[in-house]
Amino acid sequence: MIGTARTIHVKAGRTLLIAGPASFQLIEGEASVLGASLDLSRNTVARGKQAPIEIRTSSSFNIILGEEASLEELDGSTIPLSWREAASALAEIGEGITVVIGGADTGKTTLCTFLSNSLILKNRQVAIVDADIGQTDLGPPTTMAAAEVTASVVNLSQVKPSERLFIGLTSPGHAKGKVIRSIKRLVECHTKPGKMVIVNTDGWIEGNEAALYKLQMLDELQPDITLGIGGNETPSILQTGNRTTLPVGSPDIIRERTRIDRRELRVLGYRRYLAGASLRTLRLDGVRLRYCLAPNDLDLRVIPRLQLENLKDAIVGFLDASGFLQEIGVLKDLVRSAKTVKVWSRISDTPSTIEIGDVKLNNEGRELGHLWPQ
Question: What backbone torsions phi and psi does residue 160 show, to the nearest 5 degrees?
Answer without folding.
Answer: -85, 120
